[in-house]
Design goal:
alpha/beta; Nucleotidyltransferase, domain 5; 2 domains; seven-stranded mixed beta sheet; five-stranded mixed beta sheet; 12 strands; 23% strand
């Protein structure tokens, strides 16, 4: 208990943030020095690494996110992922040349295997539920460092979506006194944060807009036997089918008003099967199919902005992060859709586009220890603000 009180009283902390997202490709780890809190937060990034999942582990994760998973697989994967996260922490410390003893805290999002934010009957009681694997207590024991995990559950308990969680980071790091901004993250799923100029936390709006790399990567695997459409080359060689695009944009998720969040339940293997079937029935080439799917991401982001954001709050700049920022075709489509609003990489603002979400969970863990609420009810729909995350403490 004395060690926890000392950590709470400590202002400056060295924290590793861990993120393993819906792309299911590996772990992002960011080492960052953090001081103070809220709008006064000071952040100094030290190192970032991406550690790919070994093939057998990635296969098990894919299996566990599908209907073929077993409770034994889920239970074992919870422990196995904690070991993978411990390795990622070791890698980022080595990259920074930092000793384990200098590390104060870890924030670990965990690997989402199921996210069910809409209330549904379970044994006579309507519940919202989510499951992120990578046991925080196991990780804390392996590292000898306190770990904050399970960030989504508290918001769900208050009637929220439990997602997105990045908007708190966006608010403290990117709110500008004079310029209303949009922050777009292109991971497996695309999510948009809108920051009014000089706005308070309750003025922030954010929600998932639909698929980003999740569908594009799945199509790259099926059509080109590749992990991704590197630089958007295949999409750039094709022509989007605008009739198919219009049909896709009529999907249930796109017509649902925020707050909303999504994942593989909406845009996983079944969705890709249906998209491929529709493309083949229209005689589209693999390149045309990829171009259509890539435009789906850009068009769904802009459609969400135009329908649900612009009537109340226009933006003057769109700042993009996540793996999708490396897809030149996607970035070009976003720039065309949002013109004359400038669309630029978050790298132009001093943040590694690949590191943002890992940095976010370092910040969220830091604020959990500070006792600061980091959910945003204006984003998630929760009934109140609350502290996020469960703290696991290693033994003496």
């Amino acid at each position: 208990m004395d060690a926890l009180l000392a950590l709470h009283r400590q202002s400056r902390r060295t924290v590793v943030g861990l993120m393993s997202g819906t792309s299911l490709d590996g772990v992002d780890a960011a080492l960052v020095h953090l001081d103070d809190s809220g709008p006064d937060l000071m952040m100094e990034s030290e190192a970032f690494v991406h550690v790919p999942y070994p093939g057998p582990l990635q296969e098990l994760i894919h299996k566990t996110t599908s209907s073929s998973s077993s409770i034994r697989d889920v239970t074992r994967l919870d422990a196995r992922l904690a070991e993978a996260y411990a390795d990622a922490v070791g890698n980022v410390l080595e990259e920074a040349g930092t000793d384990r003893e200098a590390l104060d805290l870890v924030g670990a999002h965990g690997q989402t295997v199921c996210h069910l934010p809409e209330p549904t009957d379970c044994a006579g009681e309507a519940v919202r539920a989510t499951l992120q694997l990578g046991n925080s207590s196991t990780l804390a024991t392996r590292l000898g460092v306190p770990v904050v995990g399970n960030f989504r559950a508290a918001d769900l308990a208050l009637g929220g979506q439990g997602a997105p969680l990045v908007p708190y980071f966006d608010h403290v790091a990117f709110t500008d006194a004079d310029e209303p901004r949009g922050l777009l993250n292109l991971g497996g799923i695309a999510n948009l944060t809108v920051l009014p100029a000089g706005g308070a936390p309750d003025a922030v709006r954010a929600f998932d807009t639909g698929p980003a790399n999740m569908v594009i990567d799945a199509l790259a695997a099926r059509l080109f036997d590749a992990a991704m459409d590197r630089d958007g080359r295949h999409a750039a060689q094709g022509t989007p089918d605008h009739d198919l695009l219009a049909d896709l944009l009529e999907g249930d998720f796109f017509r649902r008003e925020p707050p909303k969040s999504t994942g593989r339940a909406d845009f996983g293997a079944g969705y890709v099967d249906r998209l491929l079937s529709a493309a083949q029935s229209r005689g589209l080439s693999p390149e045309d199919t990829m171009a259509t799917a890539t435009l789906l991401t850009a068009a769904s982001v802009y459609q969400a902005y135009a329908q649900y954001v612009r009537p109340a709050q226009s933006i003057e700049r769109l700042i993009v992060s996540g793996g999708g920022v490396h897809n030149d075709a996607l970035l070009r489509m976003l720039k065309d859709a949002f013109a004359p609003i400038p669309v630029e990489s978050i790298a132009e603002h001093g943040v590694d586009p690949d590191a943002k979400e890992a940095l976010c969970f370092a910040v969220l863990a830091h604020e959990t220890v500070n006792g600061v609420p980091t959910n945003l009810p204006s984003v998630t729909g929760a009934s109140a603000r609350t502290r996020l995350g469960s703290l696991s403490v290693p033994g003496p």
